[in-house]
Structures are given as structure tokens and as C-alpha cells.
């Protein structure tokens, strides 16, 4: 039975979502645009009570254990991983989830650490260009190819606008151009953000086409030798320091071709460097922004060449996703999937007083929530469809565990009904607002909104969709395969203390603790908010696990075609 407590609600509005940047990438300058609650919801809040479900009293125990010093910050391929994976397997087994390989819940994940021990300056040839762009000051570069050395020499440079090929928007920046062996230069984000036109792409909200990862992928598909993105703080949602002055070490998956299908060099150039490239052909950044938005845009040669070399140290690693499931009673080959990443940043051995990145909120909370939800599911009637629980590795290294699962799914993705991701749970108490990242993208959200309103709450979109948060957490790798995804969490409008108080808690976490050793368990946390959200996630998954409903991406979404392409697999 569910134990319900009741709390009188106060009216209020706002969801800033400062915490909604995925833990692998927090925007440096988070905007504070306000989102007002719907009038209907506001009226309902004044006259109803919030129903709070204590899904699992062990939630706090799970979070506290996973974030303990003993677990050494849960870094992949360390003693911390051994302890974490053993803890997850033991609990999956105890609560009665079925294993995926004999009696094992582990899905091995092959990783490689790419440490660039030497990156050259970018040598340039052009009538009005400097001799070089300096590494980290004017440009940054790396390779995702699993090789000890890569060199691009005298590669012809060409401006390709936003570097986008989007058939559903009738947009092709590469049309008529052969870029094999060339260096492509492009803007970050997409034309919707640039124009703020709600009819162009997705308006202010970033589409996947605006994401830097997409731009490198498309450049590789086009055959480019080097792909360079022009950094602009507003469009990227973070400063140059995030791009160029963090750790240069990259992690990636190991595959058969060693990533030789990627561009040889990927990187960024500063706005100032881009101005110099454009001045070489007698124009400037502002003019090129305008040209990139023209309907008849054609790529523009920059009358310049670039050369870069990278030397790497390589280290291959093995980690594990942890997967367990409840088999469905009627449709066992159809799957509702819950996901959270178990990993964090490990140890800081240079710190004399606190060496452990405990990652209590990020993401022991989500992993603890996954365990709590799995345990609750096993105590209910057997669902008609199978329900899968996936704790993925290496999110902090670039969403790699989920990428591995997407490329090597334990259960077919075309028969996966929905994915629900939990990354940084609410530890500040019950909230009136439920932030749904990318709200409006798929119709699984309708079910979540329904149950949110039944709690006397209201659903809102993240406050800064231009930052592309919908593409910054593990769920995104399933999105890219067409699986409809829900990524949501309690907002800031605390039922008792109000919006300003909730916003202050999030801001303090970002200041003191996000990706710092200060992200530790706190006995004063109010986990009623996390329980409140877990119950919503349970309701959504339970409804879909006992229905014939197949959610889909909405018309016009960039992932709709992928889902539709596998429709035959879901026919009765």
C-alpha cells in the first residue's frame, strides 16, 4: 500500500531549472527567465492538497551508501566501480529483478581514455591571416580517433553556415559541396536560436541540429578532415573557458573501426579567430551570420588552409552497465525502461582535506531512485510488459555507458515503449512545479502531465531550452535511436517555502557542490520531493506497462522519422 501524507499548498510560480544542465556539462552562465504557472493550475493549487507518496523508505539509505567515502567517488574502472556494481547487483538480486546473463546483471562496456600529450598550434596560410592560432587561446583541437597520432596538413577551409542537414526543415548547408579532406567551419546552435523565429527549426529552443556533437557527426558523414565550431557564449550557453581550459582528456567507446569514421580533428575557434578568417575574404562575423540564414545559402571558401597535429596516450578500460528487469506477464518482449547513471568523478588526490567526489546528488540520488523504484515495482502486481532498470556507467565521461547500451541494446530499442531518465533527484522537499525537459517533444509527456496535475502540481518546460539540455544526459542516446524519452524532475516552487527559497537551494548547490568534493550526503535533506517525483515516474511506467500504447515523438521532431522507421516491429 502507498502511504499518503498531505500538505497544504501555497500559490506560486517558477521553474528555473538551474540544476537541469546534465551533470556532464553545466552551463557557465545560467539565465533566469521566469516561467509562469498556468492560471488553471494556480487556481487548483489554492484549493487542493498535494498528495505525496512515500514510494520507498530506503531511498535515503541507498543514496547515503552510494555516496559514502568507501565508494571512492564511483569512477569507472576503479575500486569504486567494483564496490558500486557489486552493491547494485546485490540489491537487484535481493529485490527480485531478473539478471541478463546467467546470474549476472552486468553489461560490459569497452572504453578508451584518449590523453592528448601534445597538440600543435593551428598553422594557417592565407593572404591576411596570422601565421597560426594558438592552442587554447585562439583554438582548441583533439581527435576521437583511437590512434597515437593524427595530422591534418594544408587542409582547405570552407564556411558551411550551421553545418546542418535537416530534411524535415528543408535545410542542407552542405548541398552541392564535396568536403572530403577539407576543414569545415560553422556556427554553434541552429537558425531558430539565431533568429528567435518560432517558425524556424524550434525557435529559441535548441534542436539536436544545434548541438556541437551533431555538427561533428555530420562533418564526419560528409567526409571532412577537420571540423571547427565558432564559439559564441550565448549560442553555446557557456564561455570559452568551458571549451578550452578544462581537462583535455577524452573518453570514448571502443569499436571495431577505432573511430576512423570520425573527422581526423575536431575543435573550436574563438569569435576573434573567426573574425580573422572572415576578414581574409573581406567580410566579417555579422555578415556571415546573415548569409548563413539565407534560403539560398551556399558554402563559402575561406581562401585559407589549416594544419594541426595531435599526439595521444591511449588507455583501454572496461566498465559495466548494470541491468535487471521484471518480465512482463502478457507482452514480455515489450519494454518500459528506467535509467540513471551510477558513476561520478572519483578521487582528487591533490586535495589534502577531502579527496572524494562523493556525487551524492549527482548521481547517487538518481541511482538510489532507480533502486527504490525497482523495489517498489517488484512489490506490485506483475506488469503486462517487461520493466527494465538500467544503471549506466561513464556518463561523466561523455554519456558513454548509455551510448554503449544504445549501440548494443540488451532489449530491442524498437520494442522499447519509453525511456525515463533520472539524473539529480530533488532533495529539497515537495515542489509544486515539475520540470519536463524538452516539453512538447513527444506524447509520453501527456501521461506525465496528467499525473503531475493529479498531485495538484503543474508541468513546465526547462527555463533555458536554448542551452540544449535535452541533449546533455543519458536519455539522449536513446532519443537518437528513436525511443521516446522522459527527462523530468521537481522544480523550485517549494510547497511551503516558495519559489525564491527553492531557487536559492539550487544556486547554492551549483556554487558549493556541483562537480566538487562538496557534493556529499546531508542528513537534513528533505527527500519527500524525490519520493513525490518517483511516484510520478512509477505511475507513468506502470500505465504504459499495462497498456497497448506506443508513445511517439511529435510531428516535426527530429527523432520522429527514426521511430516511424521501426513501426513494423510494433505491429500486433
Automatic annotation (TrEMBL):
<keyword id="KW-0645">Protease</keyword>
<dbReference type="Pfam" id="PF04389">
    <property type="entry name" value="Peptidase_M28"/>
</dbReference>
<keyword id="KW-0862">Zinc</keyword>
<feature type="domain" description="Peptidase M28">
    <location>
        <begin position="321"/>
        <end position="528"/>
    </location>
</feature>
<protein>
    <submittedName>
        <fullName>M28 family peptidase</fullName>
    </submittedName>
</protein>
<keyword id="KW-0378">Hydrolase</keyword>
<dbReference type="GO" id="GO:0006508">
    <property type="term" value="P:proteolysis"/>
</dbReference>
<keyword id="KW-0479">Metal-binding</keyword>
<keyword id="KW-0732">Signal</keyword>
<dbReference type="InterPro" id="IPR007484">
    <property type="entry name" value="Peptidase_M28"/>
</dbReference>
<keyword id="KW-0031">Aminopeptidase</keyword>
<dbReference type="GO" id="GO:0004177">
    <property type="term" value="F:aminopeptidase activity"/>
</dbReference>
<dbReference type="GO" id="GO:0046872">
    <property type="term" value="F:metal ion binding"/>
</dbReference>
<dbReference type="GO" id="GO:0008235">
    <property type="term" value="F:metalloexopeptidase activity"/>
</dbReference>
<dbReference type="InterPro" id="IPR045175">
    <property type="entry name" value="M28_fam"/>
</dbReference>
